[in-house]
Amino acid sequence: MTGNYYHPTGGLPPQTHLTTERAIVTEAYTVIPKGVMTDIVTSTLPGFTHSRSWILARPISGFATTFSQLIVEIGPGGGAPKAEFEPGVEGVIFVTKGKVNLTLDGELHALEEGSYAYLAAGAIWGLENVSDSIVSFQWIRKAYERLDGYEAESFVTSDAEVEPTAMPDTNGAWKTTRFTDSSDLAHDMQVNIVTFQPGGVIPFPETHVMEHGLYVLEGKAMYLLNNDWVEVEAGDFMWLRAFCPQACYAGGPGQFRYLLYKDMNRQIKLT
């Protein structure tokens, strides 16, 4: 079920390139296409060397409210002895290109393409690229909402190690790779991989409380965002506000896969 994982390579379009792109920003959703992820829109992160990042989502008015999402690229010899500086923030990293060493609470983990790490709030962790080529990964961050009697713990796994679950009555055309149990109240978010085979669909407009960040890892599809059908492909990012209707039609020719963030398992705060 695993496949290819798209990562941006940067660069800059020539002066002859048309400025028309597929970028869309609305109150209900945002689409950041892969074509806008050039060298000149990168950010440097504190604590990192020989690195750059594309920040896809951050909490601002009219946009993401619960999370931030970044693409981080680390060159040979680069990294961060300590990557997370904000207390109380949990994270997930998913490697899309290359190999990198993760030191997590004093234990070394060799990560490669498809590796997944959940980094609990309060964990001490860092990254080092000891290879001769770049490493690229998705990094999702969220302020952890603690719940009495529960505490999420860090773990490392991979796309290849987790068996995807077929959605009911889809004959395997729509599967979800869940790296944590949906019913585990220790976790206030999930970062999963959703896979559609050619012809697979979300057969109704999902409208729910979870906010979403979707990064397309592989393939292309038509995606319903609010009232608009938008064509998306590997390397594109979508943000969906809570209750934004969504559906999908994966026309092929290959499988369509995306990394999906959602907040969950907590009561709505009113005070």
Beta-strand percent range:
over 45%
CATH superfamily: Jelly Rolls
> Largest sheet, if any?
9 strands, antiparallel
SS-based structural class? mainly beta
How many DSSP H or I helices?
Answer: 0
Q: Mean of the pLDDT scores?
A: 97
Order of helix and strand elements from N to C terminus: EEEEEEEEEEEEEEEEEEEEE
- List how many beta strands DSSP finds: 21
Backbone shape: globular
- The residue ranges in which pLDDT falls below 50 over 5 or more consecutive positions are none
Using the coordinates shown, work out and report the CATH topology. Jelly Rolls
Question: What is the name of the CATH architecture?
Answer: Sandwich
Query: How many individual domains?
Result: 1
User: What level of helicity do the residues show?
Assistant: under 10%
Could you name the CATH class? Mainly Beta
N→C terminal distance: 44 Å
Pfam family, one: Cupin_2
InterPro entries: Cupin_2, RmlC-like_jellyroll, RmlC_Cupin_sf, UGHY, UGlyAH_cupin_C, UGlyAH_cupin_N
Keywords: Hydrolase
Domain Cupin type-2: 71-140, 193-258
Q: In words, what does this structure look like?
A:
The protein is mainly beta. The chain has one domain: Sandwich (Jelly Rolls), CATH 2.60.120.10. Helices cover 0% and strands 46% of the residues. It contains no helices and 21 strands. It has strands spanning 24-25, 29-32, 49-57, 68-80, 89-97, 100-104, 107-111, 115-119, 125-128, 135-143, 155-158, 165-166, 174-177, 189-196, 201-206, 212-218, 220-225, 228-233, 237-240, 246-249, 256-263. Strands 3, 4, 5, 6, 7, 8, 9, 10 and 11 form a nine-stranded antiparallel β-sheet that branches. The protein has an eight-stranded antiparallel β-sheet with strand order 1-2-19-16-21-14-13-12, with no helix packed on it. It has a four-stranded antiparallel β-sheet with strand order 15-20-17-18, with no helix packed on it.
